[in-house]
Design goal:
By secondary structure, the protein is of the alpha+beta class. The protein has 17 helices and twelve strands. It has four domains: about 80 residues, Ubiquitin-like (UB roll) (Roll); about 110 residues, Acyl-CoA Binding Protein (Up-down Bundle); about 160 residues, Roll (PH-domain like), CATH 2.30.29.30; about 100 residues. It holds the Pfam family FERM_M.
Length: about 625
């Protein structure tokens, strides 16, 4: 009997679709299941880039109607109104959706800090965030430090930063300055950041950027009951209301602690304050979809606002502890590298000194050899002169004897005639005078020959002393250069005079001796987290006070630098190319106001009076 086979069942397969997620420094591609939710995609991206501070970020996309939206995490990706192109994959942008109140205290992970740095930098360069010219130069110097590391005069060349996008185009157009002039001002501050790591430079960039008026503000066009066009700014601290022509200074502000409930009805947006005696804050937007986005941003910022004012969760404490440990480890590593770099520089300097001393010794040896050669040539020349003088003296003596013989012959022939006698007398007198001169010249030449002999003897004695002095000098230098093996070999190989066998054996013994290595042991005691767990409160207070004083001094120094740069480039400003934001910022500087003083002014008064003020705009 044949056994009945079970029916064939086709294995269920789930359809998938390609997705591309772009961060500001990378592109990621995934294949998602058809039923995947926004949370699945978001978690996948966060795991890929190693991000744990996920509450600041979101996935942004352009919907089918061209409106910028954020992906809802609790809904399926395919059920949201995403613009679908059958010929390409679905694209998302992984961006910061919410901003911290204080970057130095809240951003824990380095990857979080880096993503914020890239996004804020792009917003400043694209002029979405207004930045004054002097602050733009300072931020550009920190961006260069984060990208290229420490400034090096040997490798830096003028024009090296020309290809980098460092300043907003608005700033470049406002001044009669070339790109080289801007680069020189950036280079001056870039050189001051020596020793700063990439994460420290990025954090300094964010600390300065968070003080800009438009930092962390999401602007939406709204109208009040009088249909006056205004701007609504959603921030980490609350809601700001701006006039249509001024995005820098809010006219009024409502913090999240003053808001009890937020809702919208069609295009009407309603905010109920905590004070029940105050009227509701009502405004109108252009589209219902915009109200949904405003509500989403308000809810997220309000949640983070309340979370910051509660004790840190266990997960956040662990993240901060891990970040502190990693920071300490990197600091130890940087200290070790700095120590090794210092030792290497000292070794290089010592090597340069030895090479310099070697060159000096070589020059002294060359001069000694040259002096010895000149001494030998002088001795040879004096010997030759002495020989010539002796030959001349012998020749003069021979001529004197011949003259005497001639005188004798003349005297004998003078007896012949009287006339001849007179002639002979005359010739005799002449011959005697000539003989006297020759005798005198012979004596003089003989004296000169004796003098040359004496000089020759003295020159040979000096030559002997110079040779002895040179051998003694070479022996002393051979022992003084025994610090390093390679310089000794160079000196001995370049000596023009040969060393004695005893000196040569001493040099070889010195080369075989090992040179003492520098002690690179670093006794570093790492106390990881005793301060967090069992720290002394008084010590912590002192450290906090010291950090506050250091920060105030650094901030004061920074303000002075910005003020000097502002006055330096003010003469090159082109007035007609100033934007409205530039004029508003100049007025704000003249009044001595900044972002925080403006916010304090806008929050003054009761909630009721601020609502009434908004309605009267």
């Amino acid at each position: 009997m044949r056994q009945k086979m079970p029916p064939f069942r086709r294995k269920k397969t789930h359809k998938s679709f390609p997705v591309k997620v772009c961060t500001l420094d990378a592109e990621l591609e995934f294949n998602l299941e058809w039923r995947a939710t926004g949370r699945d995609l978001f978690d996948l991206v966060c795991r890929t880039i190693g991000l744990r501070e996920t509450w600041y970020f979101g996935l942004q996309y352009e919907d089918s109607k061209g409106f910028i939206s954020w992906l809802k995490l609790d809904k399926k990706v395919q059920d949201q109104s995403i613009h679908k192109d059958p010929h390409s994959c679905t694209s998302f942008m992984f961006l910061a959706k919410f901003y911290p109140e204080e970057v130095a205290d809240e951003l824990v992970q380095e990857v979080t800090q880096h993503l914020f740095f890239l996004q804020v930098k792009q917003a400043i360069l694209s002029m979405d965030i207004y930045c004054p010219p002097e602050a733009s130069v300072l931020l550009a110097s920190y961006a260069v430090q984060a990208k290229f590391g420490d400034f090096d005069e040997d490798t830096y060349k003028p024009g090296m930063l020309a290809s980098e996008d460092l300043l907003p185009q608005r700033v470049i157009d406002q001044y009669q300055m070339t790109l080289d002039m801007w680069e020189e001002r950036i280079r001056v501050w870039y050189a001051d950041h020596r020793g700063m790591s990439r994460d420290e430079a990025e954090m300094e960039y964010l600390k300065i950027a968070q003080d800009l008026d438009m930092y962390g503000v999401n602007y939406f066009p709204i109208t009040n009951k009088k249909e006056t066009d205004l701007w609504l700014g959603v921030t980490a601290l609350g809601l700001n209301i701006y006039e249509k022509e001024n995005k820098l200074q809010p006219k009024t502000t409502f913090t999240w602690s003053e808001i009890r409930h937020i809702s919208f009805d069609d295009k009407k947006f309603i905010i109920k304050p905590v004070d029940k005696n105050s009227p509701n804050f009502v405004f109108f937007s252009q589209k219902v979809r915009m109200n949904k986005l405003i509500l989403d941003l308000c809810m997220g910022n309000h949640d983070l606002f309340m979370r910051r004012r509660k004790p840190d969760s266990m997960e956040l404490q662990q993240m901060k502890a891990a970040a502190k440990e990693e920071k300490q480890r990197r600091q130890v590593q940087r200290n070790r590298l700095a120590r090794e770099k210092q030792l290497r520089e000292e070794a290089e300097r010592e090597r340069a000194n030895l090479e310099q001393r070697l060159l000096q010794y070589q020059e002294e040896i060359r001069l000694a050899n040259e002096a010895l050669r000149r001494s030998e040539e002088s001795a040879d020349l004096l010997a030759e002169k002495s020989r010539v003088a002796e030959e001349e003296a012998m020749l003069l003596s021979q001529k004197a004897s011949e003259a005497e013989q001639e005188i004798t012959r003349i005297r004998l022939s003078a007896l012949r005639t009287e006339e001849e006698k007179v002639n002979l007398e005359r010739k005799t007198r002449e011959a005697e005078m000539l003989t006297a001169r020759l005798v005198e010249e012979s004596e003089r030449r003989a004296a000169e020959a004796n003098k040359l002999k004496d000089e020759l003897l003295r020159a040979r004695a000096a030559e002997k002393q110079a040779k002895e002095k040179l051998l003694d000098f070479l022996g002393r230098n051979a022992y003084s250069n025994s610090v390093a093996a390679s310089p000794i070999q160079s000196v001995t190989s370049l000596y023009s005079s040969p060393l004695s066998p005893q000196m040569h054996s001493d040099l070889l013994a010195l080369e075989r001796e090992p040179s003492p290595a520098p002690d690179l042991n670093l006794n570093i005691n790492l106390n990881s987290y005793d301060l967090l767990a069992h720290g002394d409160v008084d010590q912590l207070s002192l450290e906090i006070e010291k950090e506050r004083v250091d920060y105030l001094e650094k901030s004061k120094h920074l303000q002075n630098q910005l003020r000097e740069l502002r006055s330096e480039i003010a003469v090159l400003k082109v007035g007609e190319k100033q934007s409205e934001l530039d004029q508003l910022h100049d007025e704000q500087v003249k009044l001595g106001e900044n972002k925080y003083s403006t916010l304090r002014k806008s929050k003054s008064g009761s909630t009721k009076s601020r609502v009434a003020f908004f309605e009267e705009l």
